Amino acid sequence: MPSNKEDIMPVLLFASENQELENDIAHQTANQLGYKTLNRGSLAEIANRHSLELPKLEDALQNTPSILRRMPSKLWHYYISCVEMEVLDRLLDDNVVCWGLGAHLYVLVVSHVLKVRLIGGYGQQTDPDIKREKLRKKWSLAAYKREEADPKLYDIVINLDQIKPEEAVGTITSTIDYPRFRPMTYSRNNLMDRALAARVKNALLKTLTDIHVHAQNGTVVVTTTSLKREKEKKIAAIKEVAGQVEGIGYLEVHWNVDPVNEAAVSSR
Length: 268
Hints:
This protein is α/β, with parallel strands linked by helices. It is 44% helix and 17% strand.
């Protein structure tokens, strides 16, 4: 366990299909470390901050876009971006245990973030368990083009069929004190870059689609696609909206033609 909780400490992210055990282990870990918690209990505050419908926000974190649920792709991506932006901003405070908000899929290349995958713990796996895993795979691929169950996304994978929850907590609290997980200037800057990129993406997704944002040391690069005839208009819109986001030192916009829609228009 860290010796001085007043120091700047690492961030801890959990992911699991077994929400009951995930909640239990995450809360126990936070209590032992003296960390703040960040989970789906924050969704009401996020919905209020961004004027979102809470039921739709909860649904967006569970399901992929659906016209039947009145959650088209454009709106779905915007709702997800609101959560991503808020989570990254709060992780800048350090000393946080976060779960249930998909952070393990977008907090990447940040060395002071310990990512833990909890598997098993069901006993005999049932059909609903298998269905839940398939839904999560579909969601993570749609949202971030990553498979949530991919072990390469995590620093530790713990099998709860073999390890008791209290033993898992002990493993995690001892691992987080390793020197490699201590916040360093480089890793904190990486997290700040991701938070800035998330703010820019969120601002753009209010009105635009096909947006990818990368930030490094205050330089923001926005990549987008559109029809050729819409190029200048879309680039101008991106510069206007993104230019209002605080923290940008320099902004670039990279444009690519949308080959599918361009071919469809040309064939008419």
